[in-house]
């Protein structure tokens, strides 16, 4: 242990390469979580988080003064960004300002140093910008929806994704809902993947119009769950598994086993504070097989109109 060579047993992640200024700054004052506390959290979850964030365009929710201060949803790199953060160029946006990516824990620490309290990756990687390697179905309960109904929606999305030959996983959003994610072998391009997720959302809404809607019209959402498929289009993002949320209580978007869904675990149940206990208690990581479970999306039939 402790050698420089990455052998079978890798040394624990070293997070001190990036210097944190103002480590005692309170990012979540209500929960007493500081910048340094955030860095410790990410060092702890890094091995699990890495396959879900490395090598992707990232949008960030930056909160230089913590969650009670101003928030910026930022997609482009800026001057003074830590050099451990990678700058990447969208091949379809030549001449545009670079986008943001990370390759390792140092990069993530660079984001912590920049007060990125939420990390929102694309569903494709810089190795293949046009072919997503995951789908995220974002379940957004409207006012008055019971938690069990959100769980039921997640189970229905799960079944429909399985019917399409995919392997769905579930996580809390750290906010109000659940996200059902399915890893893809990068094959189908963005428009086909979007069409597939749109058809899935619309089928759910058509089959259970009292429960689900597939369009974001606010007035129609009361008492229903929006099956938000729009995370699945080029340039769109969804919060990363393990990312913290800039909301009270320092919640995180926590990967779950399907069997854990129930009344005890609400959408913001897991936090920076209680995740270490969860990790210590978990027999196995419920998302350990996420990448290995990737399957190609078999797009059945044509969605029409897409000529050539
Ligand atoms: P909740 O469970 O509360 O809905 P959520 O993360 O799913 O949490 P949504 O409002 O449903 O929140 O947003 C879905 C995704 O849209 C976010 O995870 C994020 O990646 C993206 N998003 C959020 N804010 C913005 C924004 N200002 N501009 C563009 N995309 C955003
Ligand atoms: Mn949501
Ligand atoms: Mn949404």
Automatic annotation (TrEMBL):
It comes from the Bacteria. This is DNA ligase (ATP). It comes from Camelimonas lactis. The chain holds residues 575 to 882 of 887 of the full protein.
